[in-house]
Give the backbone structure.
Amino acid sequence: MIFGGLPGHLAPTAEGNLITDLSLLNHERHALPPGDHQAALAVRYVNAASPVIGQHLNLAPSFSSEPLIPRRVFQYWDQPTPPEAVTEIMRSWQDRAELDYQRFNLSEARAFLHNTFGPTYERAFRRANNVAEASDLLRLCYLRHYGGLYADADDRLHGQIEALLPGAVGLVCFHENFDILCNNVIACVPGHPAITLASELAVEAMLGRDSESTWSKTGPGLLTRAVAHHLLSADQTSPEQRVAILPGYLLRQQVNIHLPLPHKKTRAYWNAPPGTPGHFDMTSWLLT
């Protein structure tokens, strides 16, 4: 299996973590007693979760009813003033009159987490290994509390928000290669159990100084596991509990994702490839 084609913030150690994930999954499966352990394995292993995601891919979502998800958009940039190129992309969401828009910077994020979820969540946020981990946790907590739609700062809205929000569902995620969920655009009702679980798992990993890649620890790998567990264990009869997993092309029809931006080519960028001037390769440190 080749994982190099996964878009989004795939950290250098993600491929190794996924291979390790598969090895550990196979070992645990052989050690388990007879019985249905699918949900328990899915919340722990991406390779157990991804088949569940594939089985629930919805190629023909219904937009005939009013969405349950609030028309609220949230974004994050750690500095008070984003670079001009980032600000221009964020305006594609901010300037839509039909959307309630909010953006946090670092100090606002810390205050929100402390005031809403308590000091443990703020402490986890402060222990993020990079800005992507901090952003991953923050988006989950914001969506858990307020609901709405989160979009990464390098994703430009060029279509209609309504085309991303089918009716009668409480959570919308988008499908990537190998039955993984992307986490650059997520939409949900407040308090959706899968997002709540994902936020709790992220806090646990961050406070435990988990050495997995950001992709596995707080990013798409985590979201994939949490949503798969929900699909296997929760009651789907309530519309607020339901999940719509939509093909990635539906997202790309409305949003230009992962746009190349000048800051991604600098040594300050969290995922700068080895060889970028000033880049410090943390791979050996993370794997110790």
